[in-house]
Structure prediction request, 267 residues.
Amino acid sequence: MIGTIVCGLGGQMGQRLANLICQSDDLELVGATERAGSPLLGRDIGEVCGRAATGRQVSGDLSQIISGAQVVIDFTMPEATLAHSAVCASAGVAMVVGTTGMKPEQLDQFKRAVQPIPCVMAPNYSTAMNVLFKLVEEAARILGDDYDVELVEAHHHLKVDAPSGSALRLAEAAARGLGRNLAEVAVYGRQGQVGKRTQKEIGIHAIRAGDIAGDHTVLFATPGEYIELRHHATSRDAFARGALRAARFAVQAKPGFYDMGNVLGIS
Prediction:
């Protein structure tokens, strides 16, 4: 069994990850963390997940429970993930990270921290979404500059960062297929007298509403026609199952920085 720790057990992704681990034949939930002040601290991790007691309590300190784990799955916040990366690197424990919203300097710090261990980091762990990343790049390459590119993403109203990490990855894929630098051509929403759309820009728009698990649309349009490439997530299980697939990959991998393309063999 692969000893697995879930960081952020009280979150919606943390709950789904923990429950799917408990249903797995090859993964074992050996620990979980929560933020300081959480009412879950000290509670049995099994009971928090609506299962039988395990004798293991939710901890506020990863370093206190990491012994015996082979992989840590972290879908939390940038500051927490940075702290957890140092603990995992010191203990030689693999990581699977779905945290989004890191600033460039935080991402650089994170990558340096995890150099000694296998680490999978992705903005989206859905298998179908990672196929979409490839399809968008190829479509952009084939369609070329005659087609305008616009992205729309929608998530639940509790999501704190925008646009989503997946939307940015899709925009990067489109820009790569078109031979453009996304930093130079991205337009994030529009308001007021913005003028005529430029040929090179890539529009990126975010919706936050209800309990939408995740919806991403990439539109390629030219006078007379348009094509949409779209991914709907109907449940967080799509992301959780992908993260568990990544965990199985990480514990067998050599130290290095990986993404879901590596896990799926499509990089």
Remarks:
- The mean pLDDT is 95.
- The chain has nine helices and eleven strands.
- The CA atoms of residues 130 and 156 lie 21 Å apart.
